[in-house]
Design goal:
Elements (H helix, E strand, L loop, with lengths): L16 E2 L11 E8 L2 E8 L2 E8 L4 E5 L9 E9 L4 E11 L13 E9 L4 E5 L7 E2 L7 E3 L2 E11 L13 E11 L4 E4 L12 E6 L2 E6 L7 E7 L8 E8 L3 E9 L5 E7 L5 E6 L6 E5 L1
Parallel strand pairs: 1-5
Antiparallel strand pairs: 2-3, 3-4, 4-5, 6-7, 7-8, 8-9, 10-12, 11-12, 12-13, 13-14, 15-16, 16-17, 17-18, 19-20, 20-21, 21-22
């Protein structure tokens, strides 16, 4: 699907031209896209108990295996792929975070914690590991590949801090506040940076992000439990005051929405996660009409 929402023919490429002749395509492997940039995909393939990373250009059929990064099946990850114009180089990022006994931001800290930040350099064909201080955030269990805005990968993460207004349960467990943030990775400086949010987002409000018309946007339920989801758009990138409420979708069955692309002037294609159902679907948002389901898994 093009960025304007128009359909295109999907062609399955049968003759794969691999730079790495030792990598054998297996039709039974599980594939996950970890990043996308300029039509180039960073793909993780799992064949039995082995996890392999490849860079693949679907348009040309070219595929190059790159060094692997050890990732635990129980770890949460964020990942992305970007082009650094100053060095004419592609770089990838994989961050994994594992906490035993801590399934969500609302639970207490677990007994074991591990975090790794790895950066891939295409010209050098190697990974570099950053220290723990390079990523002072926590990952969501729904985190995955990045949302690309201005050629830079963005993710939703959260930060926990002690809440002095609430009494502690015991000496070892302190009450915490959870703040959700939008961060991006600057491959020029190889540092994480935060995107400014509206003032109301300073509270514990969870949201999803996407891109509409080239602008970063977020979807959220500001009242936590209402039947409406608001879609906000950052009209001027990097300017917190430019966040504008674009439209509101009312549906009691929707748990979350992720904007995918504009379809003409009056429609938006979105990925929907429904409440009390383990499934996702695509919907059109016609602005003046009710949502209509177009594809369902």
């Amino acid at each position: 699907m093009d960025s304007d929402g128009s359909n295109r023919e999907v062609v399955l490429i049968q003759d794969y031209d691999y730079d790495d002749k030792d990598f054998i395509y297996n039709s039974h492997c599980f594939c996950c896209i970890l990043g996308s940039c300029n039509g180039l995909l960073l793909v993780s393939t799992s064949v039995r108990y082995n996890c392999q990373l490849v860079l693949w250009n679907p348009s040309t059929g070219k595929c190059k295996r790159i060094p692997d990064v050890h990732l635990s099946d129980e770890a949460f990850i964020i990942s992305g792929l970007a082009y650094v114009s100053s060095s004419r180089n592609y770089k990838a990022l994989i961050v994994y975070h594992q906490i035993s006994g801590c399934p969500s931001p609302n639970h207490e800290y677990g007994n074991y914690e591990a975090l790794g930040c790895n950066i891939y350099d295409y010209n050098l064909n190697c990974w570099t590991r950053k220290n723990y201080d390079a990523f002072p955030y926590r990952l969501l269990h729904t985190s995955s590949s990045a949302i690309m805005v201005n050629g830079v990968p963005h993710w939703v993460v959260y930060r926990r801090r002690v809440d002095p207004s609430k009494p502690a349960r015991n000496r070892n467990v302190l009450p915490c506040l959870v703040s959700y943030l939008i961060v991006y990775f600057d491959f020029e400086t190889e540092k994480f940076k935060e995107v400014g949010l509206p003032e109301w987002a300073a509270e514990e409000v969870k949201f999803d992000i996407g891109v509409l018309g080239g602008c970063l946007c977020m979807c959220l339920d500001p009242q936590k439990g209402s039947e409406s989801i608001e879609v906000w758009t950052m009209k001027e990138y990097g300017i917190a005051e430019s966040w504008t409420k674009s439209f509101v979708i009312s549906s009691p069955s929707f748990q979350s929405l992720t904007p995918l692309c504009l379809m003409g002037k009056n429609q938006v294609l979105m990925k929907v996660v429904e409440k009390k159902k383990d499934e996702q679907k695509l919907t059109k948002e016609p602005r003046r009409q009710r949502l209509r389901s177009v594809i369902r898994n």
